[in-house]
Design a protein that fits this description.
Number of domains of chain A: 1
Number of helices of chain A: 15
Radius of gyration of chain B: 26 Å
Largest sheet of chain A: 2 strands, antiparallel
CATH architecture of the largest domain in chain B: 3-Layer(aba) Sandwich
Shape of chain A: globular
CATH topology of chain A: ABC transporter involved in vitamin B12 uptake, BtuC
Number of strands of chain A: 2
Strand content of chain B: 15-25%
CATH class of chain A: Mainly Alpha
Order of helices and strands of chain A: HHHHHHHHEEHHHHHHH
Number of helices of chain B: 18
Shape of chain B: globular
CATH superfamily of the largest domain in chain B: P-loop containing nucleotide triphosphate hydrolases
Structural class of chain B: alpha/beta
Helix content of chain B: 25-40%
Oligomer: heterodimer
CATH architecture of chain A: Orthogonal Bundle
Chain lengths: ~325, ~500
Amino acid sequence: MTDTASQRYIPNRLHSRAHRTIRSWEALLLAVAIAIFIVNSFASPYFLNAWNLSDATFNFTEKAMIAFAMAMLIIAGEIDLSVASIIALASTAMGLALQYGAGTPELVVIGLTVGLLCGAFNAVFVTVLGLPSIVVTIGTMSLFRGISYIILGDDAFRGYPASFSWFGQGYIYWVFTVEMLLFVIIAVVYGVVLHKTNFGRAVYAIGNNPTGALFSGIRVQRVKFILFLLTGLMSGVAAVCLTSRLGSTRPSIATGMELEVVTMVVLGGVNILGGSGSIPGVVIAAFVMGLVTFGLGLLNVPGIVMSIFIGLLLIGVIALPRLWTMAVRRRKA
Amino acid sequence: MTQRPALANVPVVSLDEITKTFPGVKALDQVKLDLYPGQVTALVGENGAGKSTTVKILTGIYQPNGGTIRINGEPVTLNTPDDASAAGITAIHQETVLFDELSVAENIYIGHAPRTRWGLIDRAEMHRAARLLLDEIGAPLSTSAQLRDLGIASKHLVAIARALSVDARVVIMDEPTAALSHKEIEELYELVEKLKSQGKAILFISHKFDEIFRIADRYTVFRDGAFVGDGRIADIDEDGLVKMMVGRSVDHIFPERDPVVGEDVLQVVGYEHPTEFADIGFTLKRGEILGFYGLVGAGRSEFMQSLFGITKPSKGVTKINGKIRIIRSPADAVGNGIVYVPEDRGKQGAVIGLPIFQNITLPSLGRTSRSGFLQLAEEFKLARQYAERLDLRAASLDQDVGNLSGGNQQKVVIAKWLATQPQVIILDEPTKGIDIGSKAAVHEFMVELASQGLSVIMVSSEIPEVIGMSDRVIVMRDGRIAAEVSGDDLTPETLVRHAAGITAAPQPQEA
């Protein structure tokens, strides 16, 4: 053991930071984003307009807030498909409180609290009872929205106070919206939590090998519980923004948004099976999806065709690296 | 016992100089094995002697790298399990592979069910044939009963019927009594007699000496993948067999050790689990290496995992440095200075997918970080310190542990725990499946750790390792402590006797 002559020096890393960055998924995705930006600016004369671009951010800011929490959850090997239904329930709760005279601060607190409670509900079934999260959250997806339908029926809650509209319609400075600011803050917070803290490291460890993480002394169920709470909380935040932007609550609010959130996460390079992915990747994926939707909108492409496009984009971007390695292997062979 | 047919002296199946190598390991080295019609041959050997590999070669799951398989004297190749069953070789495994959702008859005939002329399964014929088979082995089962409604013993009967349905000449029984009750075992013996009288050759694998002497006609002993000897059971006694199993040349020098044992570090009192173990109690001293020996399934790993907080014991107290500590999770165990290096490195030990340095620092993040924020420089420093101490061979500390060899993965797992500065380290089969070089490194390291005041618990099924490394050995059998052995009593024979439950005192043997 003290044979120092045979002891070989092990470097910390083989590749420099620049090398790793250039070869990363995020770099590829950024190139795609820039390409779409350039194509869009040629395709439509209205694209390169600060106010139009500002409006376009609404296509992704609310989804992205949830996507950051969802990214951590998926990296840890779980998923929450009830997020859009949590928005519906949180929004309905806010609308209900409005009927009893709640003001803006109360509305925000109620929206966030309902989000947290829904997250806790999912978390109990997954971490305490040990049920698979995909099944639990498909169940709560129907449950949460079902409650909204029971309360509202075909009705809608309207008449939110003027100060409440600040979240979804307000501007901080010039073309920069309140939602953009929230998006940036949340992105930075999640980026730091996932990439710079012990908690984030535990998330990766659990996603790569939950048994190994448990055997390494990580409190796996506790970490997962917190992740579900965070996803619920972010759905609450998105509920506040969306309700504020629309100015009304209908039970069909945010229908289908969970799939767009998951798409954003996967497009951002998060492995759907868990274990890898990054917040910067999800940020770029949010921009890519926003740009594509906005560009197609300017070209008057109908919504159905847009979803076809998003679907193709997802499959295409995911297949690209696989096709690339296959091509390289074939050339070598 | 009874007179044999005249052809009984010609083996129906024989393995001749069969060799099987896996990357880095020679599982079988020119072994021979003969199976005679109408006779039961017991294949005897320690864990890792090559018994399972032999079964897999006979049933066409593995292909040997060298040697000849002969059936009735003709050389054959068994490329697939289908080839083996076409050759009349069939196996009843430790965990019988059957289908819970199907009926008894379907289980018996799956894969070779009788067909109608339209190519569909002839159900009537299948049930009729299944009935005949079940009657033949005296199994009072309905052919249309669903398998999941049956008990283990009945499932075994179905497995045997299935084995016979292919008109087997050779029946392999791999620890068939492991899960059976006393009465069921008696019934199994009767069945074995019946199969013998039908002229079938039976390969019987068991660790239990009483049943080997009860039903076997012949024996073959393997040790470390090599053939040691064979003969008639009538010509040998238990001691002779034990000697053949364990009496090896010392092929591996264990490090010299001068144990300096200190005060009690860990006291375990009355640990109990509803199904896995009962009444486990012992004391571990500072700087001691305590070995745990036993057969596979004796409950050693289950107990260790309970001590580490993975499974909850139903009863039991853990005292560390004289104070009672409650350990409900691995995090609690690590916090109390108890760490566990599991046998299953890939699944439980290393977090494959994370780089080496992150694996090493995973339980120590509290020390390398500042108020919850990672400090990569500190992590690399700690990882480097322990990687170098264990002489890890890797391209970089940023490399995925999944790309390391088994021995180096084991070093990463040990490094991970040493970095937490534990008081007690539990090593579960620490050198299983790793190369000789890493093995020696792990052994040397254990001695070094103990001399620095760490207490080591080593679970091992390798007798030389247990004897070479331990100051004291606890032998477990059927979830209980069967014996505690140390000093001059620490011999291969005593360990095997206690582990197998042979109570009779060894006869003085002339050498």
